Amino acid sequence: TELTQAKRGIIVAGPQFDPALAEPVARLANVLGFPLLADPLSLVRCGPHPRDAVIDSCDAFLRDGRVCDQLRPDLVLRFGAMPTSKPVLLYLQRFPEAEHIVVGSGWEDPTLLAARVIDADPARACRALLQRVEPSAGCDWLETWRAINRATRAAIAEQIDTFDEPFEGRVFAELAELLPDGATLWASSSVPVRDLDTFFPTSTRAIHFLANRGANGIDGVISSALGASTVSSGPLVLAIGDIAFYHDMNGLLAAKLHRLNATIVLLNNDGGGIFSFLPQAQHPEHFEALFGTPHGLVFRPVAEMYGASYRLTDGIDDFRGAVVAALQEPGLKIIEVRTDRVRNVELHDEVWRAIAVALTGEVLR
């Protein structure tokens, strides 16, 4: 009853590990006329299931307070863990008066907003709800979300096309075009998993997203991804920063010993790129030593030591060609993309400004 009576409900699909959730939660969103805010690790964003209600750029447009005010919900139904996106978290915290319902196994509400936590299998819960809810009579609420999502996605694509220098976010936009059906994309912690959220749009292809998350999310990223490569139905691509790569370089031995097939996209900005987005970046006196942690390492010899093919890319066309070739070759391949940490922050800011301009006027009332 609460679901069908809600005028401005949303469904949030956070990180979880059951691909069976995608179909019923997408159908439930369509029936209710609720936007489906899909974290990439929810396994809902890509695949052959209905995607009319899937919102894939909320991490970008919910940075704008004007948008948040227009999209005030009266009910939030969440499946899985809290999404990776900080803007989504802040958006949910902005409206504590909404009815927040969390469905999952265990306590998964770090916001303490949930009026109810239902300990149930999310996929089975969705299927049960589909037997009980009535279709929504109108879809103006959903269409507002979809219009903002379309404008945001278009602004992102247009802005990154203007960049004539390496941009870490564009790597994920290109992978969205290049990865085949059945591929697995493993995103490392810090910036890569966040750029995956913003720059990888929905697709009818079944792309499986995985990541290490948590307090020790940097640990064992290469080893985890290589393990996943043994069971992936298609090629596995790992997108990883240089610090996380260095932290688990010895994991590459598994690929050599067991002749594993994987492609590693190494995003090398010579340090901890995530910290350049945080307030401590405004204190340059000690920033590089404590947070930037530049290492000056050259990774080609690492590839040679572990028997991997290696390619340092020069421009976006070269990157595309390297990925296409790597997906067709067996064994371990390392594709390095070198970027600048300071410029990476500036380019992200240019994307956010382009979105704000695009949403001003017709989209935002």
Keywords:
365 residues, alpha/beta, six-stranded parallel beta sheet, 42% helix, 15% strand
Molecular structure report:
The chain has a six-stranded parallel beta sheet with strand order 3-2-1-4-5-6, with helices on both faces. A six-stranded parallel beta sheet has the order 8-7-9-10-12-11, sandwiched between helices. The chain has 365 residues and is of the alpha/beta class. Helix 8 (168-178) crosses helix 9. The protein is globular. It is built from 16 helices and twelve strands.
Short description:
The protein is an alpha/beta fold and 365 residues long. It is 42% helix and 15% strand.
Number of helices: 16
Arrangement of strands in the largest sheet: 3-2-1-4-5-6
Strand content: 15-25%
Give the H and E element order.
HEHEEHHEHEEHHHEHEHEHHEHHEHEH
Rough shape?
globular
Mean pLDDT: 91
Largest sheet: 6 strands, parallel
Radius of gyration (Å): 21 Å
Helix content: 40-55%
Q: State the end-to-end distance.
A: 30 Å
What oligomeric arrangement do these chains adopt? single chain
Beta strand count: 12
